[in-house]
Design goal:
single chain; alpha+beta; 3 helices
């Protein structure tokens, strides 16, 4: 092949590679299923699971066996009586999570938490990855808390929170990372709520 032909071929290949890279970059969405927690209306809730759902409606929407996983309930005389259900080994975003569902006095869903456990190194790495991805998707968090190492406590808690105020109350999405040095274990919690009694 002549030198000029070779140059033209290489130029064409370079152009094609640039176009392919641009298409991939433009179409690359969030790298976590947690991005689905925010609806087009700007409300935070578990994907395809509206707030105020009953236990039966949650089971229908998710396929989870909720009724057989009742954990307990608060006394009726507290400010926000609720029932708590705790489900183990629920797959989400490539992890097996413990899912906690909270229902108010009307037996309507108002809060959900997804909890994963692992080594401090793994959980911290995952937390930092999710913080970056969710900030790209949701924008800058409304609240950020970062514990510094202290001689008085072996537990570190980092959290970021997004919230909106609506006429029906406060809607929150939070990501928490807790490192317990004594036990050499850590946990990460994703939580969303729909009440002023939230997080």
């Amino acid at each position: 092949m002549k030198p000029k032909s070779m140059v033209r071929v290489m130029s064409a290949l370079s152009l094609l590679l640039c176009l392919a890279f641009s298409l991939v970059s433009c179409n690359s969405g969030p790298k976590t299923e947690l991005a689905q927690f925010k609806t087009e209306e700007g409300i935070y809730h578990y994907p395809n699971l509206p707030w105020h759902s009953t236990v039966e409606e949650v089971e229908t929407a998710t396929g989870w066996n909720v009724q057989d996983n009742f954990y307990g309930h608060t006394p009726d005389d507290v400010d926000f009586p609720e029932s708590l259900y705790c489900l183990q080994d629920i797959p989400f975003d490539g992890q097996n999570c413990t899912v906690e569902l909270q229902f108010d006095r009307n037996d309507e869903l108002w809060a959900i938490s997804l909890i994963t456990n692992g080594t401090p190194r793994d959980m911290k790495k995952q937390y930092q990855f999710l913080e970056k991805e969710l900030t790209k998707t949701f924008g800058e968090p409304d609240k950020v808390h970062r514990d510094e190492p202290s001689q008085y406590s072996d537990t570190l808690l980092n959290s970021i929170l997004w919230e909106i105020q609506t006429e029906n109350g406060r809607n929150v999405f939070a990501l928490n990372f807790q490192d317990d040095a004594n036990k050499n274990q850590a946990s990460m919690t994703v939580a969303a709520s729909w009440k002023d009694s939230g997080f």
